[in-house]
């Protein structure tokens, strides 16, 4: 009969686990012993290989395909799982892209390359070799990119972000990475190198009075200028603060604070840490001297030559912001801003930055960082923690708009804000002006 | 313990301890040494309660001793039942009722508004006192951490708080009244003795609650009027060059964002008014002496002297500026 063998086979199969267990119970001790011996031999052999120095650690030999597959498998799954709790904010602000680009050029491009820039030959000898990023970005979501940029990856050369609490900077990096695959070499240059890119080569940006000080300042200053502009006006977007006309004391102390890790930034800390004291002093003098908004009241300040400063002109918000700046909000424990940051007649402590004409976005970011306690700085920075603590998000925006509007009033003298005034119809759209520059 | 068996040294020690604990009953912050009409009433109430309590205690102990030692036999259950019902159920309501009848009428008089008398507004803020006096010209003048009162005059207090519940208490002058956010509570005081007393916050209000005190100065009416006029005047201009540098430092470092010094551009309202800070008896809400050294210490280590305080510590100021600031502020008489 043909049924019988089939049935016998089925019977054997279905009882297999049962029989295996019965065997193991019957020979339990012997089995355990042999397993332990096997494990011992493997571990001992493995240790011997390591001890004798036979592990193939050379980068020149690369990974076995199976090792490569396994490491990637582990990394991809780890990133996917560990990025699950992250939620990306809106990343379509061109200023974020610009900020990310500025850091990418010095912090990332040497290993990962950029449009029009090959990876260094030396970097290509690493194992694992850092990927040339532009064609690889699409493999990751925003959140996964954020996780990788923030935490780095073990067993590769990918470092963690220098300042883990500055997640805003990491998101700026992600915003730029999202644009990276579509950037032409020219547009990448324009984003990362600013005005220098327009001339094709690194433009001579060191003013004459600095040249005599030291030649090494040339490249240093050129690096500063990429983001802060050779005019010190921060490239007109709010991604980077205006440095022109700040006090020398404040600029030098801020660089020092970055270098000492007192002021947190994954972008500025590494830059400042590489600058010596004399260069810091020369840089501070340079930006401080760019033009003197220093001791003048804001309404006589030189107009902003780099385009409009505020992203919007909401007269009601500016009026509210002015009230906060001048009187504070006593019931919320917020002191006035003008007593330290101007504009006012009395001279003020040079460690306090001047805020008139500074960018809205930059001011909003700094106040938010102060409010959340993530912003350090000079020895005076802690004053701002108790000052900003009581401000709401809307109030932060209002007061930032007020300060950003200060210089504009001299450029657009018709704008005189009074309580209850109608909004200005011909409001200036920074985004449209800016977007022309950011051609993909 | 039989006193005859007690060693003489022990007896001296016990009496000394008892005496020294009594010394806590006097001083500038004692409800048992009243210097005001209201404190006097409260003190009387306290002594009456004390006397009655001692009487009741003696009775109860007396009965216990009688029943266990003097006459330990079985007692008549009828008499015992009357004693228990009378002493345990009837007497307490009668005694407490009598206390209530005596005590309740005291309350309105303690908070009675002083008709057309002096009205002082005090706001308890973490952790200091904002004090406002009406000026003869019809305005108000803001002071801080010190209350001065004319002797023999009934003074009304309006009490309030912008943050948490505090309690305003000058034990030598009267009872305590809570300062509750969003409300105004009232208190009336009538000091009877000239002198310096101490007030305190009597409701736990956070980390530095114990460091929230103030001085109370009861003055002759003429001296009080002179004092109020002087306090209402703008600050005197600094005389020495050190004090002038102090004023510059005060404005340059943004102290004016929180503090007012009338007669200068400083018009902040978050912290105490400093127009005549040098004339006060103490610093930091009754916790430091008022001299240049204490000023410098306070400005440098605010956060250590009064943990949790809103004012940032200015330890980073150059030594020269600190000295100048201290000289300027302590000179604001």
From TrEMBL, chain A:
Q: Which UniProt keywords are listed? A: Electron transport, Heme, Iron, Membrane, Metal-binding, Transmembrane, Transmembrane helix, Transport
UniProt xrefs under Gene3D superfamilies: Cytochrome c-like domain
What does UniProt give as the signal peptide span? none
Boundaries of every Cytochrome c domain copy: 95-181, 197-291, 316-407
The organism's place on the tree of life at top rank:
Bacteria
| Membrane spanning residue stretches | 30-54
Q: Indicate what this protein is called per its UniProt record.
A: Cytochrome c553
């Amino acid at each position: 009969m043909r049924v019988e063998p089939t049935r016998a086979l089925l019977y054997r199969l279905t009882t297999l686990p049962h029989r295996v267990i019965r065997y193991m119970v019957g020979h339990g001790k012997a089995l355990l012993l042999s397993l332990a011996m096997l494990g011992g031999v493997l571990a001992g052999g493995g240790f011997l290989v390591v001890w004798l120095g036979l592990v193939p650690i050379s980068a020149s030999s690369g990974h076995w395909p199976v090792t490569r597959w396994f490491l990637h498998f582990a990394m991809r799954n780890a990133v996917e799982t560990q990025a699950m709790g992250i939620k990306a904010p809106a990343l379509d602000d061109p200023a974020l892209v610009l900020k990310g680009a500025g850091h990418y050029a010095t912090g990332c491009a040497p290993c990962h390359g950029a449009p029009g820039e090959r990876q260094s030959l030396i970097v290509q000898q690493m194992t694992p070799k850092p990927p040339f990023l532009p064609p690889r970005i699409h493999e990751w979501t925003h959140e996964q990119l954020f996780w990788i940029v923030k935490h780095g990856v073990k067993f590769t050369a990918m470092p963690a972000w220098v300042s883990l609490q500055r997640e805003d900077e990491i998101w700026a990096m992600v915003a730029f990475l999202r644009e990276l695959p579509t950037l032409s070499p020219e547009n990448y240059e324009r984003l990362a190198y600013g005005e220098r890119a327009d001339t094709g080569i690194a433009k001579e940006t060191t003013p004459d009075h600095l040249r005599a000080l030291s030649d090494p300042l040339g490249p240093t200053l050129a690096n500063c200028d990429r983001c802060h502009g050779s005019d010190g006006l921060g490239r007109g977007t709010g991604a980077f603060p205006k440095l022109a006309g700040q006090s020398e004391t404040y600029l030098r102390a801020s660089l020092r604070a970055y270098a000492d890790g007192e002021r947190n930034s994954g972008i500025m800390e590494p830059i400042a840490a590489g600058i010596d004291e004399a260069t810091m002093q020369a840089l501070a003098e340079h930006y401080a001297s760019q033009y003197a908004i220093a001791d003048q009241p804001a309404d006589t300040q030189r107009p902003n030559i780099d385009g409009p400063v505020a992203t919007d002109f909401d007269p009601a918000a500016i009026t509210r912001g002015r009230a906060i700046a001048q009187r504070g909000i006593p019931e919320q424990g917020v002191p006035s801003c003008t007593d330290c940051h101007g504009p006012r007649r009395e001279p003020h402590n040079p460690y306090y930055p001047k805020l008139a004409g500074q960018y809205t976005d930059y001011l909003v970011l700094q106040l938010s960082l102060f409010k959340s306690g993530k912003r350090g700085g000079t020895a005076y920075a802690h004053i701002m923690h108790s000052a900003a603590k009581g401000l709401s998000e809307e109030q932060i925006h209002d007061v930032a708009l007020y300060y950003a509007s200060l210089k504009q009033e001299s450029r657009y003298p018709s704008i005189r804000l009074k309580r209850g005034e109608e909004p200005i119809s011909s409001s200036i759209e920074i985004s449209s002006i800016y977007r022309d520059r950011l051609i993909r | 313990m039989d006193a005859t068996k007690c060693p003489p040294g022990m007896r001296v020690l016990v009496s000394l301890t008892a005496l020294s604990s009594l010394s806590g009953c006097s001083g500038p912050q004692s409800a048992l040494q009243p210097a005001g009409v209201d404190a006097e009433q409260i003190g009387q109430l306290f002594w009456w309660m004390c006397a009655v309590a001692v009487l009741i205690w003696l009775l109860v102990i007396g009965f216990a001793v009688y029943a266990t030692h003097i006459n330990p036999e079985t007692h008549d259950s009828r008499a015992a039942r009357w004693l228990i019902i009378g002493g345990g159920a009837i007497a307490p309501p009668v005694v407490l009722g009598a206390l209530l009848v005596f005590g309740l009428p005291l309350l309105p008089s303690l908070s009675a508004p002083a008709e057309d008398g002096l009205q002082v507004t005090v706001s308890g803020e973490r952790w200091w006192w904002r004090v406002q006096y009406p000026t003869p010209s019809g305005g108000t003048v803001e002071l801080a951490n010190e209350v001065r009162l004319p002797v023999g005059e009934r003074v009304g207090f309006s009490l309030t708080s912008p943050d948490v519940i505090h309690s305003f208490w000058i034990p030598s002058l009267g009872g305590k009244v809570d300062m509750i956010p969003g409300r105004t509570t009232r208190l009336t005081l009538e000091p009877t003795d000239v002198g310096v007393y101490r007030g305190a916050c009597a409701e736990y209000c956070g980390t530095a609650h114990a460091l929230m005190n103030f001085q109370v100065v009861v003055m002759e009416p003429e001296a009080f009027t002179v004092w109020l006029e002087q306090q209402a005047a703008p600050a005197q201009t600094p005389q020495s060059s050190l004090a002038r540098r102090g004023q510059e430092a005060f404005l340059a470092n943004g102290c004016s964002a929180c503090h007012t010094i009338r007669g200068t551009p400083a018009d902040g309202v978050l912290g105490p008014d400093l127009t005549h800070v040098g004339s006060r008896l103490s610093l930091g809400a009754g916790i430091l002496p008022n001299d240049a050294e204490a000023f410098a210490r306070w400005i440098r280590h605010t956060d250590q002297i009064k943990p949790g305080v809103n004012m940032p510590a200015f330890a980073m100021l150059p030594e020269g500026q600190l000295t100048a600031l201290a000289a300027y502020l302590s000179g604001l008489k």
